[in-house]
Amino acid sequence: MKRGLDRLILAGLLNGIRLVWAALLIVAAGNVLRGQDTSSRPWSDDVIYFVLTDRFADGDASNNIPEGSDPKLYDPRQLDIVKYHGGDLRGLEKAIAAGYFEKLGVTAIWITPPVKNVWYSLADLGGPKTGYHGYWTQNFLDIDPHLVSRKSFNGAVEYPDSRDGRMQHYKDFVALAHKHGLKVIQDVVCNHAGPVFYYDANGNGRHDRDELSEWQQPFRKDGYYANARWMNIPEWNALQTQPAGPETILGRQVATSGILQKLEAYGRKGMSGDSLGRRDGEEVVCDFFSLRDIWTDPNGEHFDAVVNEFVEIYRFYIETVGVDGLRIDTVKHVHREFWEAFTERLRGALGPERAKRLLMFGEVYDGSPEVAGRYTYRQQWPERKDPSLDSVLSFDFCFAARQFLRHSNDEFGSPLNLEAALKNSYGPHYNPTPGLDGLNARQKMVNFVENHDGLNRFRAWKVNERSNILANALVLFSEGIPCLYYGTEAALLDLDGKLTADTETGRMTFLRTDEPARMQSAVESATFSAIAHFTKLRRELPALSRGATVPLWVDSADTPKDDGIFAFARYTTTDAVLVVVNASKASSVTGMPGAPMQLVAPKRPLLTKSGVLKLEAVYPAGGAVIPEVKWSGRTPHVEITMPPRSVAVFSAN
């Protein structure tokens, strides 16, 4: 017992315990990452931090209202959720240089699309909004001026006010991240451009910008709207899509064709309001509000040109800027053939050595592993077994974890769907064939419990900090690549968020300009300390990052003894780690009378051979009974008493 407790660094305002040396261990954990060669680290060892760049920190106030832009689009109070708040690359650079991400144990930063956006739309979910989030591309080969500075981080270089200047700042940002052992994942969009053209609904030959009908038209199943016309509103950057043709950027020739400047490259079929939830094909060909759907039909006249255009664009960001990974937006809204062609051609253009270091994971907004997993396969399976996308975001895991832990106050739900989600990853849903890096889709699945879309923050109104910590423990200890959402490390609370409704209210600014000490207070918080220790355990115990998974115990509705318990093991051929979560406000046990938890797994029958379980960590500190392993013949079993609302990690020998 004493040996295990000596390793604890988990502090808590929640339980009144504060370990003085926790901060020292957090700093030590960060120093392990500094200067590390990011390219040699397998993606299965990474921890991703997803940040909505405009909502992290305003590091440079001079870019908040770019020259020529509409000043009304920016909110200096950082309160209006639909306007720009000023977050930028400089804000992230300051956090990187301060060692913030290293202290947390993060090894990769996923940023929202940094490209030049349309800055305003009259028609979006909930009404008029700005393009602060980055998903309304106007120029795929330029960086948005809201995000960049005129001088380098060290002040030694002045960036020209041009595309090259903006791109150089982005390149330097990536280099700074690499210097601190951090990979950079760029969020990319191939499904649509922003509101770059309008529908001339009244046929008067001009854009009546205050008319909603000219921003969106109802979906047209047959045919298309021939009245599409390019926008020309410079103060909103609502302009014809770029690039216009071959480009020279930072001295590199980029062989783009300008296909995205042709209206024929867009579907122009109007908006389907429920496209996010559809599976009948309409979601693939429609506009979503005022976003303009790019025509990716493999039978379309411009299919190859569109695929090749995006290959050239993102090859540039990978080879010249140095981006390490691509998170691909709105995957299920694009023809599957496009992804197969895009991934194959991009890997071919990069060559095998660079391609094997690239991670391409997609957003398939669907809780069905069958629907999401199909994008990791090629349609010619099993003749072609190589992967299409490397992996996807695991909405299956996300929905199940939220069902278990995201409740008001001290309530909890059933972990049965979470058990099913872990088992699903071993079914036929995801391509088992390793990619060029030797890892398969299951090993590179990206786990999360919250994001910037309708899911919103895990910690909404009445969801307490302890539940947030337990949810992040599940993310960090489950098989796949864990992804944390910005602010979760400080238990950022969305007071306007509801448990029963999808909203975007959680897109608040994290490090506000009126709270200069917020970063330091975040580092000193209970949740930050807990997550930092979880990431440290993930580095120290290889089974937590590379091991297979087997669920061991799920609570029963028949008895209160094990209410709230979910236990699983991560194991390799030589090591095993047990993770036990108790979501109940009462002590619970991993077992019932006559039915103890067995320590066995499919490919390694005995999770412990010596009969020893060693407590590696428990949150909150001071709980978890050191279990005594017993044997039924040759089968080891154990009952572990878990304190209320806790998580414990045991290594097995």
Describe the structure.
The chain is α/β, with parallel strands linked by helices. It contains 16 helices and 29 strands. The protein has two domains: 18-57 and 75-116 and 130-193 and 299-545, Glycosidases (TIM Barrel), CATH 3.20.20.80; 548-652, Sandwich (Immunoglobulin-like), CATH 2.60.40. The protein starts with a helix and ends with a strand.
Strand content: 15-25%
Describe the main β-sheet briefly: 8 strands, parallel
Count the domains: 2
CATH topology category name of the largest domain: TIM Barrel
Question: Which whole number gives the mean pLDDT?
Answer: 92
> Which strand order spans the largest sheet, edge to edge or round the barrel?
16-15-14-7-2-1-18-17
Contiguous runs where pLDDT drops below 50 for at least 5 residues: 1-30
Number of E-state strands: 29
Estimate the global geometry from the Cα principal axes. globular
Task: Please count the helical segments.
Answer: 16
Structural class: alpha/beta
The CATH superfamily label of the largest domain reads: Glycosidases
CATH architecture of the largest domain: Alpha-Beta Barrel
How far apart lie the N and C ends?
16 Å
